[in-house]
Amino acid sequence: MGNARNRQEHTGRVTRPRGGDIAPQGNSALARAGRFANSDALRILWYSNAPFAPTGYGTQTAQVVQRLIKDQHEVAIHAMYGIEGISSMWNGVKLYPRGMSAYSDDIMVAHWMDWANGNREMPTLMMTLFDVWVLQSPSLDQVPHIASWIPVDHAPCPPNVLAWCRRDNVKPIAMSKFGLQMLQNAGVDAMYVPHAIEKVFAPTPKIVSSKGEFTGRELMEIPDDKFVVMMNAANKGANPSRKSFAENILAFAIFAQDKPDAMLYLHTERDGAMGGINLVHLLEACGVKPEQYKICDPYAYRTGFPQQALAALYSAADVLLACSMGEGFGVPVIEAQACGTRVIVSDYTAQPELVGAGWAVDIQPFWDAHQRSWFCTPVVSSIVDALKASYEAPRGVDKQAVAFASQYDADLVYEQSWKPVMKQLSEWCKEA
């Protein structure tokens, strides 16, 4: 979830106010028309990554904010990643820049006050989509209503996460059924809204661009007669490496020893430039030969892949390998299945609830001293067994995977989950 993956396509463009002018306070004319027709409408400051950022939180921000605006809420975004130094606009939505502290909690309240004062006729809400244990500023006590869409990727729920959720001015929203259970186990009342995907994620044999038509295999530079194991995971953090690159790659190396047609496609940053690990060194240490793997173009990865291209990559893979130490949600697992590709995950946190067609592998506990709770380590031999099972499974689009992923369609999730949650939040904001 907050991981670099793909670029959210949008029809608008980012603009900056001229000179020292202040960016407009409202949203687009579409959102302004009949703005009081929704009696539950709120004026919301959304704290997360910028909506055009090539991250999981960026794509979820774009997805939900646009639907909130269509539902006549007035929304601005505090882009704690993706904008620095000046306010901007995106598709008629005001973007506030990041602050000076690592997670911008030094300026969250100032941004909220500026946005709230732009229309005092509406109840106000701050909404966060990020890890909440990073929010340390005492000034956040000044915000009367904060809704936090919270990732829970440990068991039990870490103490600092629980401390945030128990604040009088916070309403937690779990993004997975696992997270909801962990919060409830600790006596925290929470709502539930899963992450979701746009309709672009569907079986995609080829894409059309200005440079011609391309299949996913052509984008990978892998022949059609190969069995492709794909990883799409952010290479961030080394102590520990939460995406379990070592266990996944070692398992692939063991699996591929007697399978000359097996190839690994890594859709991630290669060199550990974002505080991760050097994957080339790891591949060498695991005995994966250069002809057995491909890594996506580093510049294209840094600048963002169009979602249509990512859908073609998923569609071209035979299985998505996504075992990790813990996930708040794990959007690539749903994206891949929507494209008809089976998945392999760790049997831990949110991961198994997202598998409609695939395998959940054995784990062993890993103590995360920083969060004072448990991650897991996926068992290499169990990953090997799952890879063997995927190799023996029928090739092509898995219809069961596509059908399962359909429950996470963004429009469906907004209607079934976000609308009732926003009604509860509106009633809460009107109480004071």
Would you kindly provide a written description of the structure presented here, covering whatever features stand out?
The radius of gyration is 22 Å and the shape is globular. It is of the alpha/beta class and 432 residues long. It starts with 13 loop residues before the first strand and ends with a helix. Mean pLDDT is 92; it is low at 1-25 and 28-35. Helix 11 packs across helix 13. It has helices spanning 29-32, 56-70, 108-116, 159-165, 177-185, 216-220, 245-255, 279-286, 298-303, 307-316, 331-338, 380-392, 399-405, 410-431, and strands at residues 14-15, 43-49, 74-81, 88-90, 93-96, 124-129, 146-150, 170-174, 191-192, 206-209, 212-215, 227-232, 262-267, 293-295, 319-321, 342-346, 358-361, 363-368, 373-378.
What gyration radius follows from the Cα positions, in whole Å?
22 Å
Query: What average pLDDT do the residues reach?
Result: 92
Strand order of the largest sheet: 1-4-5-3-2-6-7-8-9
Number of strands: 19
